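Hey L., structure's done. Input below.
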Amino acid sequence: MVLKINNAKLAIFIIISGLLLQATYALINSFGGSASCNLNTNYDKLVPFMNLEIISFIYLIFSLIVPVHSIYLVFKEKNEAFKLALSIILTHIISFCVFFSYPTCQDRSLISDPNFLLQTIWNVDNNCNNFPSLHAGIATCLMIANKNKYLNLYYLILILSCLFTKQHSILDVIAGCFIALACRLITVFLLKKLNVRII
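Output:
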């Protein structure tokens, strides 16, 4: 089955789906205040807290990088952009189901005097619904779809910044990466099974 979707329609689909996912995440987060389960392990204590503006900046600008990279792929490699969009959507849906069924929180009580950018992140993104890490999941989706080694290095550092800023536990990050990889495999399998391609 061949889907005739021009670049503009695919870009609009990516933008609208991204906005809907962000709105859904914000809505779910607004109900996450009662989460009490913390998935930090002894290994998380070995990860240093890096109160550096650059680490916080890497984490903060990710929300801008995702749509820019996705739209770039639309004009560079349309089929890959479609696979990426479906993988990210599926990653969000599975993560949202986990957020509802197993709400978690990240303990920030031991962190004192966070830098300005990190405090900004905390003000926007509360410490609930951390498992799985959507930052790690989406970054994994982008790394699979991307062929630029420098951009992939940024995504790798972004995943690590989830730990260094104490936004997520190690288990959060591992789960996010694993779910994203599984969603990518499912997406590719279904598109191949249905013989779907974009022109």
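The mean pLDDT is 85. The radius of gyration is 17 Å.

-- N.
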